[in-house]
Write a structure and sequence with these properties.
- This protein has about 80 residues and is an all-alpha fold.
- It is built from three helices and no strands.
- α2 packs antiparallel against α3.
């Protein structure tokens, strides 16, 4: 969500997830099913939205975080794309 733009499409996200999966599996020496990999990504993004973004909003109430609007919007955009996969 930090490095993707609002024009991110489902097929682009699939490529990014696939690339990350290959690199991760190579480094850890273990393979995962695509279903488990996708489920883990969904869980991680939901965890990020609930926990990390909450802290960002608290910080934003004290000092403007100009990046917050983009991160919040993009997190929900990526989540909606993940739900379509």
């Amino acid at each position: 969500v930090y490095t993707t733009g609002s024009s991110l499409r489902k097929n682009q996200l699939q490529k990014l997830l696939g690339y990350h999966k290959v690199i991760f599996e190579k480094n850890i020496g273990k393979t995962y099913s695509n279903e488990d990999w996708l489920l883990a990504y969904k869980f991680s993004l939901k965890h990020f939205i609930i926990h990390r973004l909450s802290f960002y909003f608290i910080a934003h109430s004290h000092k403007e975080c100009s990046f917050l609007s983009h991160i919040y919007t993009q997190a929900h955009h990526v989540l909606s794309l993940l739900e379509e996969l």
